[in-house]
Design brief:
Order of helices and strands: EHHHEEEEEEEEEEEEEEEEH
CATH topology: UDP N-Acetylglucosamine Acyltransferase, domain 1
CATH superfamily: Hexapeptide repeat proteins
Shape: globular
CATH architecture: 3 Solenoid
Number of strands: 17
Largest sheet: 5 strands, parallel
CATH class: Mainly Beta
Number of domains: 1
Strand content: 25-35%
Number of helices: 4
Radius of gyration: 16 Å
Distance between the termini: 46 Å
């Protein structure tokens, strides 16, 4: 795939190519990957698509989108139903951007990582956490979703 990170109009031929590629990827997501998730076959599949995967990586999700723009260092665990997307739509444009995950990092179940995110080493992205686009997470950080509590309580914590 020769689509690099950048901004593409939805009227461009490159967008059409990305759309076809993504459509084929979704078919495989539904037909093959649910049965091999968490196995070496999943890592082989993502490597074939261009994902850079280090040693001792455990992938327990089918939600690695645009994996040719994804880099995963050594000793990373990606939990069940986590979504790592290297694309987003803004206006009439497709935005593609790389995602890098540092070594010894845990991406917990049902978390969502947007394009342009760089996660440092030894990080813990908590259950159902949402990491917004173009963020840099420092080494050793713990990111967690706001637990279910009244908004006044959340405001007190922020202060």
């Amino acid at each position: 795939m020769d689509l690099n990170h950048g901004r593409y109009s939805t009227n461009s031929p490159l967008f059409a190519r990305w759309l076809i590629y993504s459509g084929l990827h979704v078919i495989l997501l539904n037909l093959v990957l649910p049965y091999v998730s968490g196995t070496a076959f999943a890592k082989i599949f993502y490597r074939i698509l261009g994902c850079k995967i280090g040693k001792n990586v455990f992938i327990n999700t089918v939600g690695l989108h645009d994996s040719y723009l994804l880099e995963i260092d050594d000793n990373v665990i990606i939990g069940g139903d986590a979504n790592i997307s290297c694309h987003i739509f803004e206006g009439n444009h497709l935005i593609l951007n790389k995602v890098k995950i540092g070594s010894n990092t845990l991406i917990s179940a049902e978390s969502y990582i947007m394009p342009g995110v760089t996660i440092g080493k030894n990080c813990n992205i908590g259950l159902k956490a949402y990491v917004r686009k173009n963020r840099k997470i420092e080494d050793g950080s713990v990111i967690m979703a706001v637990p279910g509590m009244p908004s006044k309580k959340v405001a007190e914590i922020i202060k």
